[in-house]
Amino acid sequence: MCAQMYYRGKMFGFVHLYNGQEAVSTGFIKLLKKEDSVVSTYRDHVHALSKGVPARAVMSELFGKTTGCCRGQGGSMHMFSKEHNLLGGFAFIGEGIPVATGAAFTSKYRREVLKEADCDHVTLAFFGDGTCNNGQFFECLNMAALWKLPIVFVVENNLWAIGMSHLRATSDPQIYKKGPAFGMPGIHVNGMDVLKVRAVAQTAIARARSGEGPTLVECETYRFRGHSLADPDELRDPAEKAHYAARDPITALKKYLIENNLATEVELKAIDKKIEEVVEDAVEFADESPHPTRSQLLENVFADPKGFGIGPDGRYRCEDPKFTEGTAQV
Amino acid sequence: MAAIFQGVGAATALSPSNSIASKKFQLPTRRSVSARKRGIVLVRSDGSLNLGLNSRGRRDQPLITNAVATKSDGSAASTASKSGHEILLFEALQEGLEEEMDRDPRVCVMGEDVGHYGGSYKVTKGLAEKFGDLRVLDTPIAENSFTGMGIGAAMTGLRPVVEGMNMGFLLLAFNQISNNCGMLHYTSGGQFTIPIVIRGPGGVGRQLGAEHSQRLESYFQSIPGIQMVACSTPYNAKGLMKAAIRSENPVILFEHVLLYNLKERIPDEDYICNLEEAEMVRPGEHVTILTYSRMRYHVMQAAKTLVNKGYDPEVIDIRSLKPFDLYTIGNSVKKTHRVLIVEECMRTGGIGASLTAAINENFHDYLDAPIVCLSSQDVPTPYAGTLEEWTVVQPAQIVTAVEQLCK
């Protein structure tokens, strides 16, 4: 649906779809409490939805409307939700990992310095294989292991960083091995199987919650579409794509549920229909939502708008009524 | 918030001391309401003027008091009190930090060598023993990541103070400072606040070499969403530190390597300095001199000479580098009609460049002459002492510039 809306001109810029990797997001995030934090990358729509951000808010944000989760100011790559503790949505790769480390640090700080004994919030940091060659990744692995922060580093290894194959970019492509080098367990899991991911996630999150420290989990997964909607995706071998398409996590789960008599075809079809309705409703809501007005431009730049300074007339600029209308010069 | 140029109290004599154990700037009690500034000129034994800010050597020098007659102020009596305590600038920063950490348990410090070592400039001395290793966190050498960690902590409820051991090291954290620190409040639609303080010593020191002598205020000034302040006296150092910690905005506090040993008497009671206001150092009539940080002292030294030559410069320490306090600056321009900016940033793209543009835009009609901006040379700071001296603006250049401007 996102792609359809994009090609119809409802949204612009860089939009990165998550098709094929759903098992990773679901497997991990569905185990979290509301107070636990999730930090993601630009491929964050599904992380937002999994964490509980309403579909309407996500779709509005993609359309750039004021009703979006970030008032239209963030866009596809910057999904934030304070209520659901989704700490973003980062455009540069690796940028979010220190932020996740900081959130984990807060959790530890609250427990040990502020003496909130029941604070066991866990942070999950999602990022890709390309990020694993970035300095911030290694620096944060070091700090997290050093201070035993309650964080799980989840690598969504989809083997491709736009057009750069992981094997061409990395000296040792087995990312999970880099965990023990820093003093934390490194686990590899088949990222196309949601139940396997969930099992691994359970141990990793429990480990973090109990204060034993971080874990590095490498989920081998695949994105069925290009890196973004602007990516023609010509470089990847069709055989490789077919190999992983056969392992579509959603169809695999469906098969599993039916084979083990956990759900019937009829029930699953009903769920499918419900999802379609939610999506249609989200699109309709987003379509009908208003665009941001001019006055929204200068809001939110500063938490304390006195940061815009004192104008020549001696008053704070933010006190000028023309300021909020967006007509004042800043 | 209102303008702060009021008259200054009468000058009092300072008994000259010929046996100064260490070079310290002695300043009387100051309040922003009634500003009184008395500078001291330190003369080298060979007779040449010393810039007076190198606190590393011992020199025997006579103190020369300022003989300028000053206007009296109604409330001068209250500020001439003997209360308050004498303190060095780095101790004032530490005092401010400690008071804020006592006041709010969410305030924490992160940086290299801030804990056990006490800070490479002793600003966090004693804090780790008092508050613990987690609250005063010794980080590994990973500026980008621990600044990002500070930002993540700020987003989730803490109020971190991130120290760059030298401001130049924060170039490694530019990613986090620009993308996350400045922008996340906006891109999250106002959901997350980032009440972080990033501080550290910068500026040209005493032959520290090019990379340790950088002026990061010019690089950071374009980043939307951050505020920048520069402290220059123990009084405003403590005040700005406290205000920055209490502010909900991300604030970058610029200290200067050579100013840490300045001594001043500051009030005992709790006070903060407004983050957006400039400080009137010396009211005058002929020319407005705008400056900040270390250059304030070069300007005051030049002011001595100018006064002896019959000029009456008005000196304003702009303090708030982003945003500019256009009210104080504007009132001054409207009075004197001539502006001289003295800064330590480089000529290209520095704070002075932005300030020139801002004043031209807003107060063009009040100017009788083009704005003169004295900045450092566009060179990497050389190691050699003589070359380094020529890189930054010296008092003699300031005097010449004022004379030119006031022709």
TrEMBL record, chain A:
<dbReference type="GO" id="GO:0004739">
    <property type="term" value="F:pyruvate dehydrogenase (acetyl-transferring) activity"/>
</dbReference>
<dbReference type="GO" id="GO:0006086">
    <property type="term" value="P:pyruvate decarboxylation to acetyl-CoA"/>
</dbReference>
<dbReference type="InterPro" id="IPR017597">
    <property type="entry name" value="Pyrv_DH_E1_asu_subgrp-y"/>
</dbReference>
<dbReference type="InterPro" id="IPR001017">
    <property type="entry name" value="DH_E1"/>
</dbReference>
<comment type="function">
    <text>The pyruvate dehydrogenase complex catalyzes the overall conversion of pyruvate to acetyl-CoA and CO(2). It contains multiple copies of three enzymatic components: pyruvate dehydrogenase (E1), dihydrolipoamide acetyltransferase (E2) and lipoamide dehydrogenase (E3).</text>
</comment>
<dbReference type="InterPro" id="IPR029061">
    <property type="entry name" value="THDP-binding"/>
</dbReference>
<protein>
    <recommendedName>
        <fullName>Pyruvate dehydrogenase E1 component subunit alpha</fullName>
        <ecNumber>1.2.4.1</ecNumber>
    </recommendedName>
</protein>
<comment type="subunit">
    <text>Tetramer of 2 alpha and 2 beta subunits.</text>
</comment>
<dbReference type="InterPro" id="IPR050642">
    <property type="entry name" value="PDH_E1_Alpha_Subunit"/>
</dbReference>
<feature type="domain" description="Dehydrogenase E1 component">
    <location>
        <begin position="3"/>
        <end position="293"/>
    </location>
</feature>
<dbReference type="Pfam" id="PF00676">
    <property type="entry name" value="E1_dh"/>
</dbReference>
<keyword id="KW-0670">Pyruvate</keyword>
<keyword id="KW-0560">Oxidoreductase</keyword>
<keyword id="KW-0786">Thiamine pyrophosphate</keyword>
From TrEMBL, chain B:
<feature type="domain" description="Transketolase-like pyrimidine-binding">
    <location>
        <begin position="87"/>
        <end position="262"/>
    </location>
</feature>
<keyword id="KW-0809">Transit peptide</keyword>
<protein>
    <recommendedName>
        <fullName>pyruvate dehydrogenase (acetyl-transferring)</fullName>
        <ecNumber>1.2.4.1</ecNumber>
    </recommendedName>
</protein>
<dbReference type="InterPro" id="IPR033248">
    <property type="entry name" value="Transketolase_C"/>
</dbReference>
<keyword id="KW-0560">Oxidoreductase</keyword>
<dbReference type="InterPro" id="IPR009014">
    <property type="entry name" value="Transketo_C/PFOR_II"/>
</dbReference>
<dbReference type="InterPro" id="IPR005475">
    <property type="entry name" value="Transketolase-like_Pyr-bd"/>
</dbReference>
<dbReference type="GO" id="GO:0004739">
    <property type="term" value="F:pyruvate dehydrogenase (acetyl-transferring) activity"/>
</dbReference>
<comment type="subunit">
    <text>Tetramer of 2 alpha and 2 beta subunits.</text>
</comment>
<comment type="function">
    <text>The pyruvate dehydrogenase complex catalyzes the overall conversion of pyruvate to acetyl-CoA and CO(2). It contains multiple copies of three enzymatic components: pyruvate dehydrogenase (E1), dihydrolipoamide acetyltransferase (E2) and lipoamide dehydrogenase (E3).</text>
</comment>
<dbReference type="GO" id="GO:0009507">
    <property type="term" value="C:chloroplast"/>
</dbReference>
<keyword id="KW-0479">Metal-binding</keyword>
<keyword id="KW-0670">Pyruvate</keyword>
<keyword id="KW-0630">Potassium</keyword>
<dbReference type="Pfam" id="PF02780">
    <property type="entry name" value="Transketolase_C"/>
</dbReference>
<dbReference type="InterPro" id="IPR029061">
    <property type="entry name" value="THDP-binding"/>
</dbReference>
<dbReference type="GO" id="GO:0046872">
    <property type="term" value="F:metal ion binding"/>
</dbReference>
<dbReference type="Pfam" id="PF02779">
    <property type="entry name" value="Transket_pyr"/>
</dbReference>
<keyword id="KW-0150">Chloroplast</keyword>
<keyword id="KW-0786">Thiamine pyrophosphate</keyword>
<keyword id="KW-0934">Plastid</keyword>
